[in-house]
Amino acid sequence: MIRKDPRRVAFDVLREVTSQDAYANLALAKRLATAGLDTRDAGFVTELVAGTCRLMGTYDAIIEAASGRALTTLQPAVVDLLRLGAHQVLSMNVASHAAVAATVDLARATVGQRVTGIVNAVLRKVSAKDLTIWLNDLARGLDETGALAVRGHHPAWIVNAYRDVLPEDEVADALAANNVPPTPTLVVRPGLCEVRELVALGAEPTQYSPFGAVARGVPAHLPPVAEGRAGVQDEGSQLVAWALSRVDAPEGDWLDLCAGPGGKAALLTGLARQSGRLLVANESAEHRVTLVEKALAAYPEGTAQVVCSDGRTPQWQPASFARVIADVPCTGLGALRRRPESRWRRRYEDLAGLGELQRDLFRSALRSAMPGGVVAYATCSPHRAETSDVVEDVLAEFPDATLLHAADALPEVPDAALGDYVQLWPHRHGTDAMFLALVRT
């Protein structure tokens, strides 16, 4: 395998992210698999790509200030070169002259000699100040939300969403937590693997979930993961599934209404199996159905049933399930530390369309639960438009349904209650910012 230039690999990944809307983590993994890089260079590429994506909006503002021109007047490929150069100059342990020179060489090799002059000139101006000074310059004259957005490297609309649900003195910490990449978290498949097996392989038990362990390195290299007896799943998602399983409910099968890519379905399958019950894992997208089937593959046949259907118009009869989880599609604002490009890709306008879908799915979940059953509405976002607003609007249509105090199902987790709901946070709990409502039908 021919070893590729690490900066060229990073550039190729960033071009996929910005021009093709690729997910940074998936595009990065694909490129690294064929790049022939050693561990050190692969780490360099990972930080260069993830860090550039994470602070992209900040770097864009700095590049515009340094160049005196709008990004739209530059070729998209040149903008990506400048972003990569800015990250090396301002946020990585790379000497400024070396970062500028290497980026100019990369510009020559990828775009052409004609753009090397502007790349050199702009990056020299960027490197004339450190990141703190640039942030002070950009924040000058802004209101409080604007200043938090600049210093925390988030769009202002996301900062407003955080300010709406958090104490003011926690907002900066919450934004900062999104800028720290998480260590991979594993989850066992109950009945197939135990946490102590992961610990024996060097992992550390998660703080709250009895099913999880934190492991450095490549999860797929661990035998339980390779064999499908364990998987990768954030602790917050584990806690949401665990909470549903702990609430009293009638005898009956369980439903995961939006099962892809299969993490919660795999955990819930093991928990349902312990009670002698079947889990139905429903997913509307065929390619995600394949992921669900893979996540469940290690369980014995007959433990779970995978269904491909639109959860808004299900194939089963109403009132069929004792426990239902609807982990609905959302903006993903609660997982920004793991999806570095998402904060700049999502728009406030996305909320309206997602909100309609979320309400429809929650209605379907409530109709799918038998009398006295329990429904969990979950989403990886702390935005009220995707959380409490959805729950309150839909429950107004279901007068016989009762909102439970969700934190009672997770007594081990401190500071998780947001009224009757659970709201987890990276800066408080070390998890994604998962939201949970529990409803008895």
What does this entry look like structurally?
It is a single chain. The protein is α/β, with parallel strands linked by helices. It is built from 20 helices and 13 strands. The chain has helices spanning 6-20, 24-35, 39-54, 56-67, 76-91, 96-110, 116-126, 131-139, 144-152, 156-165, 168-177, 195-200, 223-226, 235-246, 263-274, 286-296, 342-345, 350-368, 388-395, 426-429, and strands spanning 185-188, 204-205, 212-214, 230-232, 254-256, 279-283, 304-308, 321-327, 369-379, 402-403, 417-418, 421-423, 435-440. The strands form 2 sheets. Strands 5, 6, 7, 8, 9, 10, 11, 12 and 13 form a 9-stranded mixed β-sheet that branches. Strands 2-3-1-4 form a 4-stranded antiparallel β-sheet. Helix 1 packs parallel to helix 3, helix 3 (39-54) packs across helix 5 (76-91) and helix 8 runs antiparallel to helix 9 (144-152). The radius of gyration is 23 Å and the shape is globular.
Low-confidence stretches: none
Q: What proportion of the residues is helical, as a percent range? A: 40-55%
| Helix-and-strand structural type | alpha/beta
Biggest sheet character: 9 strands, mixed
Gyration radius, rounded: 23 Å
What is the overall number of helices? 20
Mean pLDDT: 96
Strand content range: 5-15%
Question: What general outline do the C-alpha atoms trace?
Answer: globular
Distance N to C terminus: 59 Å
Number of distinct beta strands? 13
